[in-house]
Specification:
The chain is of the alpha+beta class. The chain is 49% helix and 19% strand. A hairpin with a 6-residue loop joins strand 18 and strand 19. Helix 1 packs antiparallel against helix 8, helix 10 packs antiparallel against helix 11 and helix 11 crosses helix 12. It is found in: Cell membrane.
């Protein structure tokens, strides 16, 4: 039994500490959800802005080579080559090229490839290299891909800057990581391929646009192209490499929460069509402030709980101490000490209780002597009553004695009948137990042997049950009432030629046991009334006592096996009566360890 002190502690836990911490967790979860929604909304807005700026930035870079079409001196080189152009002005061309290079500060290197002369030259740090013959340039993978595509440009992943013409103007110490844009130069009128302008772009310019999404060092951002290559990443080791497989699936879904990270992705358009801008925010960063507030509340709650425990301890000790003393006195009385001293001078509830207990003990002591004598007399009377009861074993032994006398008197038939009756009485005692179908059948055969002697006629019956069915367990006295009904409604009504059949089979998960006769029957109206009575709940309505046995069997089957079990009745087209029992083969109720309901 729990003490009052432990109950007070339990009440403190249930009504103060537990609600407090539940409130803290609820507020934490609600705040966490709001923070997440706010952060997602802010991130979406930031990504929308960064996406627009990236699209505009690359649109400017991709459109930069179109300046060539507006520069007659530079464009004639692509049309006629250096040697064949009658308008070739080296100084004007050099100025045009240097001006083109200086248009964007992030341009690290430009390569001009002239398809007519199969030559190329580069511009680095506003210095023009010498021309170099490169007849196989269009066979390079990126140039070949651009040449055969309908697109005007192609963007390569970031890579270390390359000295295209092995020109002296590019120092070997320059290992800058650049993004390369190849632009195809075409004749507008004839759509003839004239050459390629290659731009090497420093990553810092568009890296600044991507990094505008990052608010702290633990967040990261990626720019991924259509071939799932990293065009930029906060982690420099990923730049120019394929996207890690563990991120690829999440990137394809916007606002995916993966483990302890929140991953947002935005599909770009324009020159970066189908590229994805990805922002990865660790959950611990997003909910840092929320967690700090929750931890503070939890610490405050622990402090309040400890103070409450101390307060409850002091109060409970002052309240429960006299109760514990009184409880020990009561336990002493339970142990047989009837002279426990009580202090009845207290003015509180405990004092009044001790006073009443003391008065009660005085009255009890006054009645003990008289009650003790009466109890002894009652015990003697009960013993005499028990001795006068007939023990069932005495009755069985008496029947065996009668059977032995019948044998000595050369009356084996009488001995057989007495033995059958003894077996039936022993079996009927097991009315609340589980039995094998074989035992129920043996009991029925014994019952039928006695009925043959009663009616003096040849009894027509058949029992067909295979070994599998005979080894199944069922509640005792399940089939016997149906056999008894056979004699009540057939033999006692004069149908001495009636045939009794008992058989069974297992179909699927159901065991079917059937008892039928070919004589006694009933009208369809009587059959329907009987069915209504059988399937009525025990607490509903009233029904005829004539067929109470059928209803009891049905109710027992349902209670022991569940709703799949039960009893069905039918007539053989008005020429007999059929009772079919349905018992689930595999049922948690069908166990010899359970008590019959």
């Amino acid at each position: 039994m729990k003490s009052i002190q432990s109950r007070l502690f339990l009440m403190l836990l249930i009504f103060i500490i537990l609600p407090y911490f539940l409130t803290v967790f609820f507020i934490y979860g609600y705040t966490k959800k709001l923070v997440e929604q706010h952060e997602l909304e802010v991130s979406h807005n930031q990504m929308e802005k960064a996406s627009n700026e990236l699209e505009q930035y690359f649109a400017d870079l991709v459109g930069l080579p179109y300046v060539t079409y507006r520069n007659p001196d530079l464009f004639r080189i692509f049309e006629d080559g250096f040697q064949d152009s009658i308008y070739f002005n080296p100084i004007a061309v050099k100025n045009s090229i240097e001006t083109f290079y200086l248009m964007r500060g992030e341009i690290r290197q430009i390569r001009f490839y002239i398809d007519k002369s199969k030559e190329s030259f580069t511009v680095y740090n506003a210095m023009v290299s010498t021309r170099k013959s490169q007849p196989d340039l269009v066979k390079e993978d990126s140039i070949k891909k651009l040449y055969h595509s309908h697109s005007k440009y192609l963007i390569e992943p970031p890579h270390p800057i390359e000295n295209y013409n092995d020109a002296a103007i590019v120092p070997e110490s320059d290992n800058t990581i650049v993004l390369t844009i190849h632009h195809k130069v075409m004749d507008v009128l004839s759509n003839k391929f004239l050459g390629v302008i290659t731009l090497d772009i420093d990553l810092n310019a568009y890296a600044h646009l991507c990094n505008s999404l990052v608010q702290n060092d633990e967040e990261s951002v990626l720019l991924v192209d259509t071939e799932n290559r990293v065009m930029y990443a906060s982690n420099r080791d990923l730049i120019g490499k394929p996207v890690p497989s563990n991120l690829l699936k999440s990137i394809n879904n916007s606002g995916v929460k993966k483990g302890k990270e929140i991953i947002l992705s935005k599909t770009l358009s324009g020159p970066l069509r189908q590229w994805k801008l990805v922002k990865i925010t660790p959950e611990q960063v997003l909910f840092h402030d929320v967690r700090q507030t929750a931890y503070t509340n939890i610490l405050v709650g622990i402090g309040v709980g400890l103070l409450g425990l101390l307060m409850i301890g002091i109060i409970s000790y002052m309240i429960t101490r006299p109760i514990k003393l009184l409880s020990r006195k009561v336990q002493s009385i339970e142990a047989g000490n009837m002279d426990v001293p009580f202090h009845d001078n207290g003015q509180d509830e405990i004092g009044h209780l001790e006073k009443h207990i003391k008065e009660m003990m005085n009255r009890i002591n006054l009645h003990i002597a008289r009650e003790y004598k009466l109890e002894i007399e009652n015990r003697n009377n009960q013993l005499r009553a028990l001795k006068s009861q007939v023990n069932p074993h005495f009755l069985f032994n008496a029947l065996q004695t009668i059977g032995a006398i019948a044998l000595r008197s050369n009356s084996p038939k009488v001995y057989g009948l007495v033995t059958s009756l003894s077996k039936m009485m022993r079996y009927s005692i097991r009315a609340n137990q589980w039995v094998l179908v074989r035992e129920e059948v043996d009991y029925i055969k014994t019952y039928l042997s006695l009925q043959v002697e009663r009616f003096g006629n040849e009894l027509n019956y058949t029992i067909h049950l295979n070994e599998t069915i005979l080894e199944r367990t069922i509640p005792s006295m399940t089939l016997q009432p149906l056999v008894e009904n056979f004699f009540k409604h057939c033999y006692e009504e004069g149908f001495y030629d009636a045939q009794l059949s008992i058989y069974g089979e297992i179909q699927g998960e159901i065991l079917y046991l059937v008892v039928e006769n070919n004589r006694s029957s009933m009208t369809p109206e009587e059959l329907q009334t009987l069915r209504n009575n059988i399937y009525t709940k025990p607490s509903e309505g009233s029904y005829s006592m004539e067929h109470i046995g059928l209803k009891n069997i049905h109710d027992r089957l349902v209670l022991n096996y569940g709703i799949k079990a039960g009893l069905e009745i039918d007539t053989n087209q008005g020429q007999g009566f059929i009772v079919r029992l349905m018992i689930p083969v595999e049922s948690k109720f069908a166990s010899n360890e359970l008590e019959i309901i």
